[in-house]
Design goal:
By secondary structure, the protein is an alpha+beta fold. Among the domains are: 134 residues, Glutathione S-transferase Yfyf (Class Pi), Chain A, domain 2 (Up-down Bundle), CATH 1.20.1050.40; 63 residues, no CATH class; 148 residues, Neurolysin, domain 3 (Orthogonal Bundle), CATH 1.10.1370. 57% of the residues lie in helices and 6% in strands. It contains 27 helices and seven strands. The strands form two sheets. Strands 3-4-5-7-6 form a five-stranded mixed sheet. Helix 1 packs parallel to helix 4, helix 7 runs antiparallel to helix 11 and helix 21 packs across helix 22. It starts with 22 loop residues before the first helix and ends in a 7-residue tail after the last helix. The chain binds zinc ion.
């Protein structure tokens, strides 16, 4: 019997034959697809013909056809609907796929062809997109060490292997510290805690084999404890344990691990010819240089610190009113801030939810895309990969644009969080290929399904990523859709969240699921102003972490990272009652892998851009302004990675993003 993953997919829209695929088909399909891809790549590298763009780069683009198809289906299923068999296969595939990726970048004959094209590039008559793709291919090879020979190449391999070990160790140490600590709570210690915290503490107690409730260092338990517990003594013990993760001495202490990681990263960057690890990491990003990152962070820092100082004054007043003499401490901030929030912005979630039914919010999400980009959505019948999954054909003026799948409900087989993946991405090379895009969320399944405000934002966020994939209009798959710089990829998603907050959108779509009545105006106002609450604190704790991350990677690696951390914070004048969101010994973003090293800033970079981009609509006087929407599609949503991000952004906005819209959005402008 033929493997349905490898046979031609003849269903409507070229959808994968979901109903026919068995778990046992994946392993053999990957074997065949990998060996086909290897043969195709060897054919390109070893051919006698002189290198041309077509026989090298374009050929590489099409070399992994079956592998793309099989991976697209498998990795989506492995995250959204996992089984033991799928998990086992994922573990088995991880080293095979990474070995395959390094085989390509280590292939000297292939790199020689790319170098020959690079040297002759100006005489090749390349289209701008082809020049861009050639540049990116060469950069990918160079950055993974293709130019190195002999001892340097061997050392780079060693450094990378050691970094992988240390990154894993950092994460495991942190997990060990988080698992080891808990605090038993007596019944009277539960006073003042909301039911969901009490329930979570009792569940944690049972899980740890204790008789009563316990507090653990899990963010979802300790943060609400710090928010709600009136017991200042317990808050202090809990807080101090929380910030000591990774710095408790002994075998799980991460401080020496961090120092070794930083030294090896510096060595890796120098081997590749970069002055610092930050210079290496930022090269492909929109920010480009450490100076640009620092400049942005510092422009946000000063107003955030002023706002935090004003808030600290108000909170300290509440502390005094409770009869406590000392200054406001880090374990006090969340508690008094929550009290203040309740007084000023309290929203009754239970009363809000009936206005945020999933059907209503899908209507809003599709409705905004129709007004902005002229897209139409028609629900199509499955079967898809799980009975909960729904599908829509996306068209414009009668032409097929994409297939969009929505997989919205939590289930045991789905990993937590929310994401967007392309089961098939857009490209034109080798024949027009339109995308199949999946949004995966973890909403509670109810009858009907009612969302929280956070859920509704997530729905819009992931759909922003989906639009980036669906509206993609480029030739090469290598740069299509969301294949853009890390500090640029969240722009479409965070930007799309803004349309959920347009009062007219809420008025039209946020209607009570039973009565059809619109959301009361007072509720809407509270909802829309709650977003700016306590942003001085949030911004200060974030920016401090981002600046420490930058300092670690910018110059010579510090022998004592903790001393450097203290120095940076002192230089900033860090407020007493706020600490870094992630201190060095538990800064997993930066140390338990390469993902966000010298890159923690990128969350804020994206937020600066989404606020600035939405301001373009506000300046035009209409959140659906047709010309601004057309520019957004032409220069950003359809352009993928066809140009450097700053070029794309400048084409859309006429200039680089400014921080004013972010400061306004976070409510940081009012304290001058
Ligand atoms: Zn996102």
């Amino acid at each position: 019997m033929t493997n349905p993953l490898l046979a031609p997919w003849t269903a409507e829209f070229g959808l994968p034959p979901f109903a026919a695929i068995r778990d046992a088909d994946f392993g053999p399909a990957f074997e065949v697809a990998l060996s086909e891809a290897r043969a195709a790549i060897a054919g390109i590298a070893d051919q006698a013909a002189a290198p041309t763009y077509a026989n090298t780069i374009a050929a590489l683009e099409l070399a992994e056809g079956a592998l793309d198809r099989v991976s697209g289906v498998f990795y989506n299923l492995a995250g959204a609907d996992s089984t033991e068999a799928r998990e086992a296969l994922m573990r088995e595939l991880a080293p095979k796929m990474s070995a395959f990726a390094s085989e390509i970048t280590n292939n000297k004959r292939l790199f020689a062809r790319i170098e020959a094209l690079w040297a002759a590039r100006d005489g090749l008559g390349l289209e701008p997109e082809e020049m861009r793709v050639l540049t990116l291919y060469r950069r990918m090879f160079v950055r993974s060490g293709a130019e190195l020979e002999g001892a340097a190449a061997a050392r780079l391999t060693e450094v990378k292997a050691r970094l992988a070990v240390l990154g894993t160790q950092f994460g495991q140490n942190l997990l060990a510290d988080e698992r080891a600590w808990f605090m038993q709570l007596a019944e009277e210690d539960l006073e003042g805690l909301p039911d969901f915290v009490v329930d979570a503490a009792r569940a944690a107690g049972r899980e740890r084999g204790q008789n009563g409730p316990v507090l653990t260092l899990s963010r979802s338990l300790i943060v609400p404890f710090l928010q709600f517990s009136p017991r200042r003594d317990l808050r202090r013990v809990a807080y101090e344990a929380w910030v000591a993760r990774g710095a408790n001495g002994g075998e799980t202490d991460n401080r020496a691990v961090a120092a070794e990681i930083l030294a090896l990263r510096e060595e890796r960057a120098k081997l590749l010819g970069y002055p610092s690890f930050a210079a290496f990491k930022l090269e492909p990003e929109m920010a480009k240089t450490p100076e640009a990152v620092r400049d942005l962070l510092m422009r946000v820092w000063a107003p955030a610190k002023r706002k935090a100082a004003a808030d600290a004054g108000a909170l300290e007043g509440m502390l005094r009113a409770d009869g406590i003499a000392g200054p406001l401490e880090p374990w006090d901030w969340r508690y008094y801030s929550e009290k203040r929030r309740m007084a000023e912005h309290d929203l009754d979630e239970a009363a809000l939810k009936p206005y945020l039914g999933l059907e209503a919010m899908l209507g809003a999400m599709f409705g905004c895309a129709s007004r902005l980009f002229g897209l139409e959505f028609r629900e199509i019948a499955g079967p898809f990969y799980h009975p909960d999954v729904r599908g829509w054909e996306v068209t414009r003026a009668g032409r097929h644009v994409a297939v969009f799948l929505g997989d919205y409900f939590a289930r045991a087989s789905k990993r937590s969080g929310a994401w967007c993946s392309a089961m098939r991405s857009q490209r034109k090379l080798g024949g027009e290929q339109r995308p199949i895009v999946v949004n995966v969320c973890n909403f509670a399944k109810g009858e009907p399904a009612l969302l929280s405000w956070d859920d509704a934002r997530t729905l819009f966020h992931e759909f922003g990523h989906a639009l980036h994939q669906m509206l993609s209009d480029v030739t090469h798959g290598f740069i299509s859709g969301t294949s853009v710089a890390r500090d640029f990829v969240e722009l479409p998603s965070q930007l799309y969240e803004h349309w959920l907050e347009v009062p007219a959108v809420l008025e039209k779509y946020a209607r009570h699921w039973q009565t059809g009545a619109p959301m009361p105006v007072d509720m809407r106002t509270r909802l829309l102003t709650a977003g700016t609450y306590d942003q001085g604190f949030a911004t200060v704790e974030f920016v401090a972490s981002a600046l420490v991350d930058l300092a670690f990677h910018e110059g010579a690696a510090p022998a004592d990272p903790m001393a450097m951390q203290d120095e940076v914070l002192e230089g900033l004048g860090m407020p007493r009652a706020i600490r870094m969101r992630h201190a060095t010994p538990h800064f997993a973003h930066v140390f338990s892998g390469d993902g966000y090293s010298a890159g923690y800033y990128s969350y804020m970079w994206s937020e600066v851009m989404d606020a600035d981009a939405f301001a373009a609509f506000e300046e035009a006087g209409d959140p659906f302004h047709p010309e601004v929407a057309a520019r957004l599609e032409r220069h950003i949503l359809s352009a993928g990675g066809s140009e450097e991000a700053e070029v794309l952004y400048t084409r859309f906005r006429g200039r680089m993003p400014g921080v004013e819209a972010l400061l306004k959005g976070r409510g940081l402008l009012e304290v001058a």
